[in-house]
């Protein structure tokens, strides 16, 4: 059993598990942080960005002014932003049987994996994961295709050239594996391979392995997975939360008794408390609005935004800001808001009970109805004529490299009245802001990451007691910025097995048993004998049938009766069929009872001779020797086959057959 | 011998008060707990005294499962749980849990407030009953206890309708509730995987019907409504508030839009808007088309259909009214019917099944004079039309489901005996499986013959599979030999060697030695060589070795040759074998006695 680690990113994992005869990919996260090396894609022509000077090395030897631009003291790639894919060379991706998706953030690389690699398997995901994942992909594609770039920059990737570039570009890794965004056609084709599953549904894979998604409490439809056979159990924990936000709470007890637990997707900001951050978010927002400024919230179109809107729904009236408009701008804003209302089954209890009334589970329905929240597909069209300031704008992409957010950065960045509040934890906000410097706008960093922190996870592991834990390497040491915080790492006994990108781990499993079924007729024919108190054994002679990884034992078919014909004589002459093994024998043949048995069977004259290891019996009339010892019996009998077989059966009476 | 017992307390050779008891693997499950619309007395509810004469049901039932919100499937639930007494879990899907209490409350109001019956369940009882409900999702495997698990499948029929698989160990039963095998305007088709249950308990409402295509029926329906409205008549469509109503509303709404019709369409009772809201929130339970487009256009927001007020019934001119309940047995639909029955210009369209005893059933049977609540007779002059829109599987659909699930036995409920008989024959013929149709209170026992799961040591299994080769030879099956160790409820199959080791037993060697005398005028070595050649030609599929130290070894049988100095031509062949090679040893000793070929 092996684990191939195709991504080193702890929250955007992509691992492949070889378990029994199956090859299972666990998530396929797309690392979008590579986009930070690129220039923003403005929706509206930006004089500032278009006039940036090209980059030429100091000695003038390398001229990449078409590809690289200097902006605010850094060098950026002027091309369509690219993403870092899971490793494609570590194993043949066409051999993957299934892909299990744990949440919509961890499936963004799916089209790269399922298309053009020869993948022919099935992807399993819950319905909200599929629907919202589709929206996020659609959004990404729209963001990119709306502002096409004529040329793709590739020269800078040349190893010799990259070496000479200024940082951080110089240190970017695996740049040759970076790819630009997929097309909508590829998205549709990839998602057509998804098979929907429900929580606690048991899905059989090839009869060998059973996989089951469990609620993980992190986002709508997010799941952890159990991968098990009758005897081995692997738990895959990815993006789980114990906080009470909108999704169904995390199911923990089913993770118990795991042989191996693969742990990914812990909080990226272990030092920030989500509740505290939410408070800070609200107070900063209120402060800016009161001062007449606008608030920009770069965010994903699903997830924490629902909680932010719910929080603001309660907060705004109490803060006397009830008239401030909220705008949610995204190609999928409307769909995201609508979809959130129809997944009652996947929500926490108190949202679920609203649906029984029937009322929409999220209060943003009311915000929309009362015109407090408006949503638009983009800044073009209705938005430009309807928008009032001061206001709060939720829009993507949180990397600040593409999407409508780029426009608001250009528009509002110059005024100190406005505030940008970062809530998504995926990007370093300083790196995100780099191409917009110098910036007059206030920046507030309130990352809200509801995933498990180290304290919660160690408590969880104590409860569920896995035999072995596998996790990304960063979890086994304190964060680089806080080397003394030994509380911000996993300390376990035995220590966790750490992986990084391209690791191949052998998992500590010893498979010893497999499930087999005895057909009822066979089971009925067995004759159990008690060997010790409470322990019985029965000898099983049967025919094994294995089909689709299921094993069945059938009774041995009776040989067809030989027709009474002339051939009969020859049949005896034929050598016996290739051996059907005889049972092993155990026990000992006791002297006195054996003599009595011989006597009963008409063998009277027996001379007994004691030896070092037992006795030798001389059957004088028959001229047969039987050597009886503790662990063996030897019958020496010439020329009298019927007698030999009779003696054999008498001896067998005293022995146990296994 | 393990068996499964099925006893209908209701819906046995009948439609109404569905309630089926199943005993499987020591667990008792109640499937549905419905009421009968055709009765107003004790026969209204299933006879729970069958389970126990006195006392509560909790200790006799492991769980109760409700398939969907129709009252003939859940109408007796508060009575059963609160008045007879049951505190265990009640499973249903989320939409059923949402809608079921509303219909129960409606039903209670009609019975208690309008008819003045006492000794009926109260609003509080409905609430208390619903607290015992555990909602579940499609395909979720719910572990009721250590052994009993249940799983819901999509059934179509109405919003939230589900089929249930009930499984204990290797035995399983599937109960369909009511289902529909063709997608309609708002719901999808039922689906189940090839789960091969021991028994498939299916409804059989339309056991003998094979309905024409849905499109034709829809066109027919629209044509009839259109004609009546054109000639200034009024159309009454008795429906249940949720379900068929929404489908027909979608149908009329689009037709009105397309034809630009002006006649008003009304929907009675305040439930409409609320009902549509349920459809909006549970849109994932509707069909693919509605689900796909719901963001752009929600099919359950109607432009042409407005709320009905009772005074409208006397308005002149044409109109279409959807009114509840669907079988004309009480409430608004019956009131409107009484008002309009006398005019032959009007029409009533019954879009669903009507149980015996209801006004709906009577007029469908052509009864022209009705006695209503013991008062004056009512002349039925308006046109009565029946359109089977109720979403049940027809005979074709039932057969289709059997093909999907591949059950070992079939059991029919929720249908009329005569029609069941017909379908039963058809099923037995086509699938060669037994089909049962027990009456209420009658128990069907089916002997199951489950195989016995055992843990086999991987070493033994792998060895066997390697020896058996990739393709098993059907003519010469290989016998595998192992030892089954039974200890503390565990069954393990291991190789005999491992069993000896584990049990701390030592092996007992049983050996045989046999001397065969033979005249052969050669040297001992040559004789042995001749034996080797002879055996080689006879024993083709055995391993035979000629070892230089003067022995021939066949498998593990040792053969040596000696001769005495006095008689060099008289050879003594010594054969020695262990019990494991008994057959071959015996064969060889017999063979060599016959001498060697010259």
Strand content of chain B: 25-35%
Say how many strands of chain B there are: 30
Oligomer classification: heterodimer
For this structure, the CATH topology of the largest domain in chain B is: Metallo-beta-lactamase, Chain A
Radius of gyration of chain B: 37 Å
CATH homologous superfamily label of the largest domain in chain B: Ribonuclease Z/Hydroxyacylglutathione hydrolase-like
How much is the radius of gyration of chain A in Å? 36 Å
Number of helices of chain A: 18
Contiguous low-pLDDT stretches of chain A (5 residues minimum) are 566-572
CATH class designation of the largest domain in chain B: Alpha Beta
The overall pLDDT average of chain B reads: 88
In one word, what is the shape of chain A? elongated
The N- to C-terminal Cα distance of chain B equals: 62 Å
The description of the largest β-sheet of chain A is: 7 strands, mixed
Helix content of chain B: 25-40%
Describe this structure in words.
- The complex is a heterodimer of chains A (658) and B (598).
- With 658 residues, chain A is an alpha/beta fold.
- Chain A has 18 helices and 34 strands.
- Chain A has a seven-stranded mixed sheet. In chain A, strands 11-12-13-14-15-22-23 form a seven-stranded mixed sheet, with no helix packed on it. A six-stranded parallel sheet of chain A has the order 18-17-19-16-20-21.
- The longest helix of chain A is centred in the first third of the chain and has 20 residues, at 127-146.
- Chain B has a seven-stranded mixed sheet with strand order 6-5-4-3-2-1-22.
- Chain B starts with a strand and ends in a 5-residue tail after the last helix.
- Chains A and B meet through helix 8, strand 25, strand 27, strand 28 and strand 29 of A and helix 3, helix 7, strand 23, helix 13 and strand 24 of B.
